[in-house]
Amino acid sequence: MLRFLSFGKGLRTLLVATASMVVVSCASDPQSPPVDEALINVPVGFPQPAFPLDNVPDANRVALGKILFFSTELSRTRTVSCATCHDPAKAFTDGRQTSIGVDGRIGIRNAPSLANVGYGPYFLREGGVPTLEMQVLVPVQEHNEFDMNMLDVVERLSRDSSIAQMSRAAYGRSIDPYVVTRAIASFERTIISGSSRADLDQLNASERRGKDLFKSDATRCSTCHGGFAYTTHEFANNGVYASYTDNGRQRLTFKSTDSNVFKVPSLRNVGVTAPYMHNGRVAALSAVIESYDRGGYPHPNKDPRIRPLGLSSEQKLDLEAFLMSLTDDHFLTNTRYRP
User: Fold this and answer.
1) Distance of alpha carbon 80 from alpha carbon 103, whole angstroms
2) Rounded to whole angstroms, what are the CA distances from 254 to 31, 240, 257, 262?
3) Is the peptide bond before 275 cis (omega within 30 degrees of 0)?
4) Which regions in the chain score pLDDT beneath 50?
5) What is the tens place of the pLDDT at every residue in 297-331?
6) What angle do CA 230, 303, 250 make, to 5 degrees?
7) Which of helix, strand or coil describes residue 42?
8) Where are the domains of the chain?
9) How far is CA 221 from the centre of its chain?
10) Using CA atoms, how far apart are residues 257 and 254, in angstroms rounded to an integer?
11) Nearest of 257, 243, 279, 269 to residue 330 by alpha carbon
């Protein structure tokens, strides 16, 4: 396992080295987690994370990335940050159908959770962005999100002497787009959730029945939502709507077979990430289960695994109970993810 100093220790070292502020203990430093936590905590059953050679997380990089993640300086009106749409208390979602950006502009898609985002092989609903570093650029320049030019972001940040010092400590260079994208990605790679009651095998009778049903040939839920992340990262149409306004993956590939096809989301913390689907139009988890039980609406690209299930009322309740057991309370309240 790759282990690093906690980024609380790294930040404390940075503060001493720069003498830019009064040194305080890590326990009272709001930018740092408890010192006995590893920088990257890999839960039991999770694979070791892979890092880009030019952006292996360390204490200084994560500390800077966390500050930038919560900074409204990245948006044109200084009113929106990454955390606006990715609230740690909501498993890094925002509880809205679609997110709200600068000037109250309404986005077109539901904000996905960032839990375990460092394990993603690609990003956005159509999978068009290959790295976490590149993904950082998307909301910055997006008209309905930050509506900002990255060069202007850098100009703003360069006026902050503490940011400038942290940039040099983290990457050996002045703050620039390279540093901004890599630092935020480094912080995001620490956002790991793997301590739910399901992970700890602390399930009641209903939840255990739901788990068995989830993994059974009768539902085949785990064929799309399998593995440690509860997603295979595939692309699929689940037939939840009779018609769509979002082309999905077709926006990237221009293929008719990718029309209204989207990346399969993780089900971790699904009990607190409502509303659901790419556009947030399904309000309740029970409604999601009902849609799958009916087999969805006809669609030329609907995944063949989506078919009527014929579940009883008790089975639906058991399945929902299991999905609720995927909530990771420690993750939702962990102060290392708070500003």
Assistant:
1) 10
2) 44, 22, 9, 14
3) yes
4) 1-36
5) 999 999 999 999 999 999 999 999 999 999 999 99
6) 95
7) coil
8) 7-192, 205-329
9) 21
10) 9
11) 269
Residue 235's H or E segment, with its range, is strand 235-236
What is the length of the chain? 339
Residue-level pLDDT at 38: 77
This prediction has a pTM of 0.89
Task: Please give the CATH number for the structural domain made up of 205-329.
Answer: 1.10.760.10
The set of residues, in sequence order, having a beta carbon less than 8 Å from that of 171 and lying 6+ positions away, is 61, 178, 179, 182, 183
Q: Which fold has domain 7-192?
A: Cytochrome Bc1 Complex; Chain D, domain 2 (1.10.760)
Q: How many CB atoms lie within 10 A of CB 112?
A: 21
Determine phi and psi for 293, rounding to 5 degrees.
-65, -35
Alpha helices in the chain (DSSP H): 7-18, 59-69, 82-85, 132-141, 150-157, 161-171, 177-188, 205-214, 250-253, 285-294, 313-324, 329-333
